[in-house]
Each structure stands twice: as C-alpha cells, then as structure tokens.
C-alpha cells in the first residue's frame, strides 16, 4: 500500500512539474525570438531546426560571406550621407530653391531627401545588427542551466511553498538571472541567409549612394566644409560622448574577449588530454587568438586615442568668458522671410522690429527703368502671375513694365499656400496673414525710405538686365541716381557690386564699399574695409588674416543656432540671416565652454571610464570562471545520474551492473527524468576535480531503493531504453577526454 501511495505521489509531482515546465516555455520562448530575426533577415517566418555550421568559426556559406562586405559598404555609405545631410541643414532652403528652378514645384525636397536617407540608413543598420545577432551565440547552455536550477528550486520549495508561490519564485528567479546569464551562452553559430530581395536592394543602394557622393564632390564641394565647421563646434562634446560610447561597447567587447579566452582554455585542455586531435585544436586555438587580437587591439587603440585626442583638438568655442567677442549684428536676408513675404515692406519692417542692423535685398531693373526688389529669375514662386498672365509666367522679371508689376500680389503665396517657404517657420497670426495677403512688389525707394527712417544699413545684390533690356549698359548709373535722389545718408549704403567702383566713388564718396573674398592686397588698393563672404570661408583659419588687418566681416547665410554660435566665438562682426527671430533671442553662444572646465571633464571622464572598463572586464572574467564551475558541476551531476540510472535498468533486466553501487545517486534533473527514480534518501554529493570529473570517495551510507512493482518496471524500461540507445550524455557541456587504460 505504501508503494502504491509513493507511486501516486511521484506521478502527481511529475505531472505538476510538466505543467510548470510548459508554463516556463510559454513565457520564455527562445525559438520565437530567433524566428523573428530570421524572418526579418531571410524572409523565412517558419520555425526551423537550427543548423550548426560545419566549422566553429564560420557561420555562413561562401556566397553569404562574399556578400557581407557589400552590406557593410552600404551601411557605411548610408550613415555617411545621412550625417552629411543633417550637418548641412543650414542649406536646406537653398537646396529647395535649386530644385524648384529645375522642376517648377516648390516643396521641402531637402526634408524628403533627409527622410529617405534616414530610412535607408535605418534599414542597412537593422540588417547589419540582425546579422550580428544571428551570428552571435544562442542560449543553449542557459536553458540547460535553467532546467538544472529549476529542478533544484522546485523540489526544495515543494515542501514549503504552494504551486502559485513556486511559479512566483521561478519567475523572480528568471527575471533576476536572465540579466547575468550571458556567460553561459554557447558558441553555436546561426546559419545566415540574406533573402534575395534584401540583396538586390542593397546592390541598388550602393550605386545610388555613390551617385549622390559624386554630386556632392562635383557640384557642392563646399558642403564638406560645413561638416568641418560643425566638428569645430561639437568636437569637445563628441569627444566626451565617444568615451561614454566606448564604455558601453566595453561590455560586449569584454564578454567576447573573455568568452574567447575561455574557449581557448578548453582547446588547450583538449590538446593536453587528447593527443590525437592536436593539429585541429592548435589550428582552432590560433584562430581564437587571432579573433582576440582583431577585436581587442582596435578597441584599445581607439580608446587610447580618445584619451589623448584633446591635445590635438581645436574649437573656437573653448575660450575664457572675458575673451568672448560681442554678439554679431544681423542683416535681414530679404527682410525677415520667416515672418513676412520676402522682399516686401512687411518683411523689412519685421526685420527692423527684431533688431536688424542692416537690410539685405536683390535689385532688378524693370523694362521702363524702375529698380525693384526681386530675387528669382521669374515671378512664379513669389507672385500670382500664373493667375494673371499664365503664358508669361516664365519670362524674366526685368522684361515687364513697372505698371504691370504693381498689379501682382506678392503675399498670398506666403500666407495662403499649404507649403510654407521654410520648414520650421512658425504659424502666422491672423493679423499677419491679412497683412501678408495685401503685399505688393516693393521698389528700391521703398527700402531706402525704411532704412533712412530707422537708420539701418542697406546692402543689395544688383543683377544685370537681360541682353535686350534698354538699361543693359547703364543700369549701375541708374541705380546710383535713384539712391542719391532718395536723399538717404550715404554712409547707410553698403555698396556690394564690384563694377565701376571709380565712377561710384566719384558720384557717391560716402558709400561704404563692400568686397567679396578678395586678397588683402586687393582690398587695400580699393580702400575696402568690409567684406561679405560665404560662411564656409570661415573654415580656412577662421579668416584670421582679415581680422588681423581690421577688416569687418559679414557672413551669409547663417540660419542655424549652432552655426551662429560658431560665428560668435570666431569674433565675426555681422551675419546675414533668414532666422532673425531665433538668433536675436540668443543671449550667449551655444556649446560654449571654458578651457578649465573642459580640462576637468576630460580628466574626470578618462578616470571614470577607465575604472568602469576595468570593472567590466573583471566582472566578465569572474562570470566566465563561475560559468566554468557551473558547467563542470552540471557535467559531473549528469554523468553520475546517468550511470546510476543505467545500473538500475540493467538490474531490472537481470544484468549485473557494471558500475559500483556507491556511485548511484538520485537524479533530480529534468534531463535525466527524475520521475522514474524513487529514492528515500538525499543524494550524495560527489567532489569533482579541476576539469569536472567525479572523484571516487568512500560512501557515507548506501541508498535504499524503494520496492519496484512490475508496472513501474515496464514504464521504466519503455522510458529509459531510448535514452540508453542514444549512447551520449544529455548535457555535454564539457568535452571529457577518454579514460586512460
């Protein structure tokens, strides 16, 4: 009767354990995770049995290995172009205008290209990360270790806890140990197969990226100077951020290096214990060492360079507060084009309202000799000429009479259009919208009147009329005469056109002549003390020679706050901007830092990062040593349990047991089917040597076997015989040498 009760109790416990194990597999399913990654990478969404690579260090076919460099190349090109386009955001409006000239459609083409490059960069990054995850380890040993540990926890807690409490205990155990089980990952490679859809798309992206790079290198060479300027601003912060990134990268690097070291120790053990496989193990050991060098040496070289890179870093934003120059003044580029329609009275008045020091515009001559303000080569974008005279919308603005130009509306495109002229333009108030709808094309005399009233400088580009224009040869004389007739103070005119300067000096000696990127000798010969140059010229030594010669510098077009901060730190006198509202609100340059504070951050980050990295490597080394001990314990426990179970089965079959009775111990692991062994005593703990093999000891007592019924004998035979036929351990975590004879 007692035998029957024991059997029923054992069957009940076994059923509860099976249900509990199913609950674990339901909530912690590794196959779903790998199926998702394989589906994204190979477009195969069905769970398949994992295929091990033929060679431990080679996880994919030759075709996949040949294609992998192309994937890396597409990733690098996409990230490079995406970063380049982000850094040149100051030029987005100019790019949109160039595309408008070619297509005739105004849109945020720069934002479209930015989004497209971002999507491609994210796509190639995900492919690369997926391949790295699939090529990394799979938690086979984690599952073995969890099953081994669960069996211990389950049977130890069964006497004191209920079923729900046991589930709660196991879930807490998983949440706590899943974060530190990386050292138990087995080095089992995942076969990679990138779907042909991905391969074709990657091969299409590479020539597309190369084409974009060719365009940048051929037609927009100056954009690379913008990247150089951005690095001048952000270099201290990039340096400190890079050190933080290296600390984060030290975790997987340390894990990989220590894991390879553990694998190398295993190989050395095989060499000393199994002379027949010496050549294979030596070759594998060499590959392991090569991998350690390939991963570890670049990491530590980059880290060393980051530790000493401030010695060669130059940033104008690193200076003492007392040496910081005054804030640059502003020239409103076509007025304030983010607050009102460009080149209109409203736009210039908005620029004056936000503190503009000067007003910038573009002057053209009408067919009847009236200077007016217009930037484009036609009237399509900034007027309603398509509604008034659609057949003549593509004509040059200088070929129209001023009487016709005054009938055009120059503000509805700004207030009522669904596509705004600037992507980050703030919404207009209802009063400003109504005012913008009533704007007309402005004359030069309107601009001069505002400048005279507000005492603002006026600078403008003067475009020559077309060849058939009646004022083709005398347009400069015409403009000078209009300026002088307006009675504006001559020192408020910053004359930019470079033609006929002698005539202008004779007619208007009070004009301030402004040069472009002339040499210092040319500026001295022309008696020019102010230059107006592209902001990218700041890359060349910060225009130090011009500042040393007391030349006043105006840079165009500066819209981004980080670029204005760089100009401020470079002690530039003035800038031409579209974004006067935002830049005028800046009270100090962004990303400004004193040298002493940067020195403190540099030393502090170096010391702190070194401590963290050393601690991370030490932690992984400790975990690797603990993993070896755990795996050796699992091997010893499993082999001893298998031997005991085999002796019991042979005894049932009437065959003498080849193993000593003292080596028999109960099996509580799931891997050796604990429900078929019923013992009434606690298992004997066998000591192990350094390699995990059990050391024979004198038994303290002999385990007493419970009586076995015929039904139990048949169930045991049906359950155990397939396991014995496999003729291999269930958990082969450590490869043991053959016994010496």
Write the layout of secondary structure elements.
Blueprint lengths: L1 H26 L2 H13 L19 H26 L4 H12 L5 H27 L4 H18 L5 H15 L18 H24 L3 H51 L4 H31 L20 E5 L11 H9 L4 E8 L5 E3 L11 H4 L13 H4 L6 H4 L14 H8 L6 H11 L2 E6 L12 H11 L7 E3 L5 H7 L4 E4 L4 H7 L3 E5 L9 H5 L3 E5 L4 H9 L4 E4 L2 H5 L10 H58 L57 H17 L15
Parallel strand pairs: 1-2, 1-9, 2-4, 4-5, 5-6, 6-7, 7-8, 8-9
Antiparallel strand pairs: 2-3
Keywords: Glycoprotein, Hydrolase, Membrane, Transmembrane, Transmembrane helix
GO biological process, one term: lipid metabolic process
Protein name: GP-PDE domain-containing protein
What does this entry look like structurally?
Keywords: Glycoprotein, Hydrolase, Membrane, Transmembrane, Transmembrane helix. Residues 328-587 form the GP-PDE domain. InterPro entries: GP_PDE_dom (IPR030395), PLC-like_Pdiesterase_TIM-brl (IPR017946). α2 (30-42) crosses α5 (109-135), α9 packs antiparallel against α10 (278-308) and α9 (223-273) packs across α21 (561-569). Among the domains are: 25-46 and 61-156 and 166-311, no CATH class; 330-513, TIM Barrel, CATH 3.20.20. It has an 8-stranded parallel beta barrel with strand order 1-2-4-5-6-7-8-9. The relative contact order is 0.09. The longest helix has 58 residues, at 595-652. It has helices spanning 2-27, 30-42, 62-87, 92-103, 109-135, 140-157, 163-177, 196-219, 223-273, 278-308, 345-353, 385-388, 402-405, 412-415, 430-437, 444-454, 475-485, 501-507, 520-526, 544-548, 561-569, 580-584, 595-652, 710-726, and strands spanning 329-333, 358-365, 371-373, 457-462, 493-495, 512-515, 530-534, 552-556, 574-577. The protein is mainly alpha-helical and 741 residues long. The chain is elongated.
